[in-house]
């Protein structure tokens, strides 16, 4: 093995596997340079370790914080006996509730009678609904007819007024024409005399 | 060490279930190591203490994301690394030295207080990355693989940083002509 400062340092720092350690040890026995290197590393380490650790001025400690504390269900879940007890209590409670709160047994009933009553009710409601619908429809129809009659009467009256006005204009026209004709005939009579 | 690991795992499991006391026990085990790592990295006690608090708070909030409790140390120091470098980026321009360089000299011949200053000075002369590599390797005893996980970089980068840092430290703390070294 040749001199290798890296190997000597790795040996010194206990970072070599057993076969490599044996090689370095064999080499340093015959190499004064590497022995001196090891000696200097020893002195350096001894000097470094002469620095004593200081105690922190105040101790670091944490107090219980609800943010980090497990939730109640987490505590329960992590606790085997508590979980078993809780399960048993839950089952017991369920049995009690079932025993005291279940609905009373249904009495004997005449289902045919109930069916007839329901049928009667349904029929009555149906007839009522049909009657209401018919009367509403008839009322709507009456309203429509009354509206149509009123509109027809209006249209008739308007036509009658229009025709009357036209007849009056025609009569007036012929009266004027007759008057002009009478005047003309009188003048002819006077000039012929 | 095995007992310690088992106990840590147990505390982590309890803390995950919301036991704050278990987490406080975990904090009390690791706070000194995390605090000293941060202190030697950022070089300021109050900052190191604040950062330690943030590190353990973040660790608590994210404890459920830790896949393997056996990886807790590396995972915790990964958080610490992120917090420290977040502060260093804000407060110190790139490459600025945390500690003034010293004149150097062999540590084997120094008095304890002198040695203490020399070590702090030598560490301060390293870059943040190199100093952190030494802190994780020499002071915290992490393996290269774990360091790669903490620093989120390849193992080769980790090795390079550690070896370069050791060479630089040697020059100050164990010069070639140290003579009377132990």
Q: What can you tell me about this protein's structure?
A:
- The complex is a heterodimer of chains A (193) and B (182).
- By secondary structure, chain A is mostly helical.
- Chain A has six helices and no strands.
- Mean pLDDT of chain B is 85; it is low at 99-104.
- With 182 residues, chain B is mostly helical.
- In chain B, helix 2 crosses helix 4, helix 3 (45-61) crosses helix 4 (72-91) and helix 6 (128-139) packs across helix 8 (155-173).
- Chain B is built from eight helices and no strands.
- Chains A and B meet through helix 1 and helix 3 of A and helix 2, helix 3, helix 5, helix 6 and helix 8 of B.
Secondary-structure topology with pairs:
The complex is a heterodimer of chains A (193) and B (182).
Chain A lengths: L4 H8 L5 H13 L1 H18 L22 H7 L1 H22 L9 H82 L1
Helix pairs in contact in A: 1-3, 2-3
Chain B lengths: L1 H15 L3 H23 L2 H17 L10 H20 L20 H14 L2 H12 L4 H8 L3 H19 L9
Helix pairs in contact in B: 1-2, 2-3, 2-4, 3-4, 4-7, 5-8, 6-8, 7-8
Summary, kept brief:
The complex is a heterodimer of chains A (193) and B (182). Chain A has 193 residues and is an all-alpha fold.
List keywords for this structure.
heterodimer; A: 193 residues; mainly alpha; 6 helices; 78% helix; 0% strand; elongated; B: 182 residues
Distance between the ends of chain B: 30 Å
Straight-line N-to-C gap of chain A: 181 Å
Biggest contact: A-B, 37 and 51 residues
Strand fraction of chain B equals: under 5%
The helix/strand series of chain B, from N terminus to C terminus, equals HHHHHHHH
SSE order of chain A: HHHHHH
Give the averaged pLDDT of chain A, no decimals: 85
Mean pLDDT of chain B: 85
Structural class of chain B: mainly alpha
Uncertain parts of chain A: none
Tell me which oligomeric state these chains represent: heterodimer
| Helix and strand composition category of chain A | mainly alpha
Structure annotation, total helices of chain B: 8
Helix content of chain A: over 70%
Poorly predicted tracts of residues of chain B: 99-104
């Amino acid at each position: 093995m040749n001199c290798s400062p890296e190997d000597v340092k790795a040996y010194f720092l206990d970072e070599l596997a057993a076969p490599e350690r044996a090689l370095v040890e064999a080499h340093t026995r015959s190499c004064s340079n590497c022995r001196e290197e090891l000696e200097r590393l020893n002195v350096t380490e001894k000097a470094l370790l002469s620095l004593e650790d200081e105690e922190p001025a105040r101790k670091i400690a944490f107090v219980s914080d609800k943010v980090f504390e497990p939730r109640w269900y987490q505590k329960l879940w992590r606790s085997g006996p508590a979980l078993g007890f809780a399960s048993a209590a839950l089952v017991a409670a369920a049995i009690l509730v079932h025993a005291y709160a279940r609905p009373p047994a249904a009495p004997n009933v005449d289902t045919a009678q109930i069916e007839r009553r329901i049928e009667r009710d349904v029929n009555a409601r149906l007839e009522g609904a049909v009657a209401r619908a018919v009367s509403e429809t008839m009322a709507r129809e009456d309203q429509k007819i009354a509206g149509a009659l009123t509109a027809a009467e209006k249209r008739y009256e308007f036509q009658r007024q229009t025709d009357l006005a036209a007849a009056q204009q025609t009569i007036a026209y012929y009266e004027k024409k007759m008057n002009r004709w009478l005047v003309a005939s009188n003048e002819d009579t006077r000039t012929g005399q | 060490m095995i007992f310690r690991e088992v106990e840590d795992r147990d505390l982590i499991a309890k803390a995950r279930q919301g036991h704050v006391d278990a987490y406080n026990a975990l904090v009390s085990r690791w706070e000194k190591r995390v605090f000293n790592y941060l202190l030697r990295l950022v070089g300021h006690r109050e900052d190191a203490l604040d950062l330690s608090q943030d590190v353990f708070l973040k660790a608590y909030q994210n404890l459920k994301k830790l896949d393997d409790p056996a990886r807790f140390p590396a995972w915790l120091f990964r958080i610490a690394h992120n917090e420290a470098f977040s502060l260093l980026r804000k407060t110190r321009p790139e490459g600025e030295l945390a500690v003034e360089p010293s004149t150097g000299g062999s540590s084997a011949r120094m008095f304890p207080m002198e040695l203490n200053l020399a070590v702090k000075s030598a560490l301060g002369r390293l870059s943040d990355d190199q100093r952190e590599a030494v802190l994780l390797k020499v002071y915290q005893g992490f393996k290269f693989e774990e360091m790669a996980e903490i620093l989120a970089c390849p193992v080769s980068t980790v090795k390079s940083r550690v070896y370069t840092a050791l060479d630089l430290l040697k020059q100050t703390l164990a010069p070639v002509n140290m003579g009377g070294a132990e």
